[in-house]
């Protein structure tokens, strides 16, 4: 064939890597404007290539080359096939994987406080959709504000095309709304007595009159309730078992209502948990009030009480929103979550608008990059009702899907006005292995930025609980809620000692003006760093283990956590 005379043929060399020239190759470099293309084709295959393309060009200094881009692309694939080289994969991210793999600093650089602030303003406008029904802006579950929040999240995610697989997970939720309550003991009105979340109303939603009856020990066994509890109002100490069990046992003993007194002089903000048919109307009071009543009863004094709770219990449906990258190893996932709902009292722009909007903004910016491991963003519903959405999700994971979650990162309240950078002290000693590595990733980042941090108790206040209880490493960070800032923390972070980290926690004032923008931007960059780190590699991160059960591993037990979201459970 070498003796044959052939016209020159134009193709572009294989873009996936240079084809090494051979001794029998014809090499022609053609200048087309500012571009130069190198032609390397073994002459052995030139006739086949010409026949397949039906394209020949007589090259001269005056020739024009119309349609060169289209012809060159076709020739590239065919040349690669003829030469026994596979053409480039059609995955749009395959080429980007070398130059656009997510990078921590590049992703952090895309964080903008202007963008975050704009989202906060949009979220507040959404909260105002609830004003006709609640007389205030709110995003409590079941409200138009919460429904609008879910639409805002899903619409934003769908606008990113096919980068994410977006799903929703619907689940039922039993809610309790207290409209009015009163507790009178003797001739004293206990204005500071608080009905527990999830409490049923008093009988027929009317006041009940009964003698006060002391329960022995902690009221965690049926035998603790004396016969006098029947038709009485029992008083029992906090501790040892869940509030819901105490209320249930009181009801089974025939009590008309229950009063649980605290182990300190703080008010109890507790929940009875999942409703049980035998539970009764239940109040919480302080230690000083409780101890005084116990002393009087122990001395033989007869004390009458009046309890009244008007409450409604109903079951509604709500949903979680999940977005997972379509690219990346689907068996190796970092999961990050915040909650989409607020309390009824206010719009919840810090709690947890800040965390949920940080996640949404990072999800938007991540779409410009490739990932090696899958990234899953989650917006949990009904956190304020006791971590219901995240717990439902964790409970619903099959054993196989559970193992695909390498770590869960909880993000709740990123922008408290009197902030401290608080990292959950999620040690491996009492949590699934890997929790401590997540903690250290956060503290190392703060240190690298020249920032201080403190450790926060890992006590069940947010959505990590369900993951820990199912053996999944978890942790996260926040900027503080109703806790009081100390002088030592002022030295580390500035702010005002003796005041709450968020003076508008669970109040109507949790609006756009309640955000510390510096803290919000900083923590969103830490989220970006976390996403980029684990999306690139889990190198050095502990492999997931497969214990027979979480209980067998001795970690994540119910007794580890004193809270279920904002409410104490024990």
UniProtKB/TrEMBL annotation:
Signal peptide: none annotated. InterPro entries: M28_fam, PA_dom_sf, PA_domain, Peptidase_M28. GO terms for molecular function: aminopeptidase activity; metal ion binding; metalloexopeptidase activity. Pfam families: PA, Peptidase_M28. Its EC number is 3.4.-.-. The keyword Ligase does not apply. The chain crosses the membrane at residues 39-59, 71-89. Its cofactor is Zn(2+). One of its GO terms (biological process) is proteolysis. Residues 208-293 form the PA domain. Keywords: Aminopeptidase, Hydrolase, Membrane, Metal-binding, Protease, Signal, Transmembrane, Transmembrane helix, Zinc. It is an enzyme of class 3 (hydrolase). It comes from the Eukaryota. Residues 320-530 form the Peptidase M28 domain. Belongs to the peptidase M28 family. M28A subfamily. This is Peptide hydrolase. It comes from Beauveria bassiana (White muscardine disease fungus).
């Amino acid at each position: 064939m070498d003796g044959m005379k052939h016209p020159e043929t134009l193709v572009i060399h294989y873009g996936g890597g240079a084809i090494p020239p051979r001794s029998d190759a014809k090499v022609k470099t053609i200048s087309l404007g500012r571009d130069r293309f190198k032609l390397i084709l073994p002459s052995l295959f030139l006739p086949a290539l010409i026949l397949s393309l039906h394209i020949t060009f007589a090259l001269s200094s005056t020739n024009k080359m119309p349609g060169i881009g289209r012809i060159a692309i076709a020739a590239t694939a065919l040349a690669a096939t003829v030469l026994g080289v596979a053409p480039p994969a059609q995955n749009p991210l395959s080429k980007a994987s070398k130059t656009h793999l997510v990078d921590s600093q590049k992703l952090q650089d895309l964080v903008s406080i202007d963008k975050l602030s704009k989202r906060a303003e949009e979220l507040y406008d959404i909260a105002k959709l609830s004003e006709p029904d609640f007389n205030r802006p709110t995003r409590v579950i079941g409200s138009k504000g919460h429904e609008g929040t879910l639409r805002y999240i899903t619409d934003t995610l769908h606008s990113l095309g096919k980068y994410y697989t977006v799903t929703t997970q619907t689940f039922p939720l039993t809610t309790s709304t207290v409209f009015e309550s009163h507790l009178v003991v003797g001739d004293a009105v206990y204005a500071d007595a608080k009905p527990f979340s999830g409490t049923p109303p008093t009988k027929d939603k009317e006041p009940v009159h009964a003698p006060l009856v002391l329960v022995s020990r902690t009221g965690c066994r049926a035998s603790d309730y004396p016969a006098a509890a029947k038709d009485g109002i029992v008083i029992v100490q906090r501790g040892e078992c869940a509030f819901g069990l105490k209320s249930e046992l009181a009801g089974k003993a025939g009590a008309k209502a229950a009063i649980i007194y605290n182990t300190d002089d703080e008010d109890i903000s507790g929940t009875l948990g999942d409703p049980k048919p035998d539970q009764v109307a239940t109040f919480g009071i302080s230690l000083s009030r409780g101890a005084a009543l116990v002393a009087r009863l122990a001395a033989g004094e007869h004390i009458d009480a009046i309890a009244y709770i008007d409450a409604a219990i109903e079951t509604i449906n709500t949903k979680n929103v999940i977005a997972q990258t379509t690219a990346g190893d689907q068996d190796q996932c970092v999961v990050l979550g915040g909650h989409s709902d607020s309390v009824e009292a206010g719009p919840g722009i810090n709690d947890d608008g800040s965390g949920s909007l940080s996640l949404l903004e990072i999800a938007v910016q991540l779409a410009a990059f490739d990932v090696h491991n899958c990234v899953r963003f989650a917006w949990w519903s009904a956190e304020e009702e006791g971590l219901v959405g995240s717990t439902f999700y964790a409970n619903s994971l099959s054993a196989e899907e559970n193992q695909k979650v390498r770590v869960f990162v909880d993000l709740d309240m990123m922008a408290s006005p009197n902030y401290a950078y608080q990292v959950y002290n999620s040690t491996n000693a009492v949590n699934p292995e890997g929790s401590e590595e997540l903690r250290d990733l956060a503290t190392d980042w703060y240190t690298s930025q020249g920032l201080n941090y403190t450790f926060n108790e890992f006590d069940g206040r947010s959505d990590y609980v369900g993951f820990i209880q199912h053996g999944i490493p978890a942790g996260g960070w926040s900027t503080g809620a109703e806790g009081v800032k100390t002088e030592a923390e002022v030295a580390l972070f500035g702010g005002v000692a003796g005041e709450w980290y968020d003076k508008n926690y669970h109040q109507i004032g949790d609006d756009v003006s309640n955000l510390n923008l510096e803290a919000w931007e900083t923590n969103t960059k830490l989220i970006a760093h976390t996403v980029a780190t684990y999306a690139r590699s889990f190198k050095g991160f502990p492999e997931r283990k497969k214990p027979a059960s979480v209980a067998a591993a001795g970690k994540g037990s119910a007794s580890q956590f004193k809270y279920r979201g904002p409410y104490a459970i024990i």
